[in-house]
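Please decode residue identities from the backbone states below.
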């Protein structure tokens, strides 16, 4: 994790990765996880995504993790949600923000996701990963993306996931640009084979759908469903 990089990104009031309406793949496919009312949904690297509002409106509690405090503060302020702030009892560098929206809890841990424990987040019924996996590089020696996958599995006890990914629209770019998009993110492009490689030991991995795209679009939004094999 590179706090300086993300701190700089969040100095822009409307960073390029923030969207003004709920993701359509979320709206279309989150129901495929078949959650009970009042389930608890973990949203890693949540930023100030209004997808969290949509989840709360569907009757779910939202537990988020975000590296940058200012992003969390913007989320609550911009959506007029009254919040409380407490320090993590064992980690002075981590703040816990909490509020209510549509009658449901929204709680966000502001700090390094790798410093969270299953006890911190509590029981998690599902994971919504919109832009976390694709924010992580997977270069040696750290292989941060692989570490992230294992950390989320650990935190959530292999809860089912709706995973949104970016695929390359190869005809829209030359070879150099394709390599740049794969290696020079974020967002990084994660291949289908890589997704299976990261998750297939713990999950049944199923491709669901992708957004319609124009011939000139370089990236294609995809939705995947991950269901615990046991």
């Amino acid at each position: 994790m590179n706090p300086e990089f993300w701190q700089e990104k969040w100095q822009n009031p409307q960073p390029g990765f923030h969207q003004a309406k709920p993701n359509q793949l979320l709206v279309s496919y989150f129901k495929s996880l078949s959650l009970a009312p009042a389930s608890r949904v973990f949203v890693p690297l949540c930023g100030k995504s209004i997808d969290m509002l949509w989840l709360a409106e569907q009757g779910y509690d939202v537990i988020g993790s975000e590296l940058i405090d200012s992003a969390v503060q913007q989320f609550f302020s911009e959506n007029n949600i009254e919040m409380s702030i407490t320090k993590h009892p064992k980690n002075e560098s981590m703040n816990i923000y909490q509020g209510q929206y549509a009658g449901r809890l929204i709680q966000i841990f502001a700090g390094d996701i790798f410093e969270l424990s299953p006890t911190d987040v509590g029981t998690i019924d599902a994971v919504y990963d919109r832009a976390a996996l694709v924010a992580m590089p997977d270069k040696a020696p750290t292989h941060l993306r692989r570490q992230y996958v294992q950390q989320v599995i650990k935190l959530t006890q292999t809860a089912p996931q709706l995973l949104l990914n970016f695929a390359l629209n190869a005809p829209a770019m030359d070879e150099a640009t394709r390599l740049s998009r794969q290696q020079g993110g974020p967002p990084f492009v994660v291949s289908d084979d890589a997704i299976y490689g990261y998750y297939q030991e713990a999950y049944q991995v199923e491709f669901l759908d992708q957004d319609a795209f124009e011939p000139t679009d370089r990236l294609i939004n995809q939705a995947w469903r991950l269901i615990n094999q046991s």
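Observation: The chain has one domain: 3-7+36-228.
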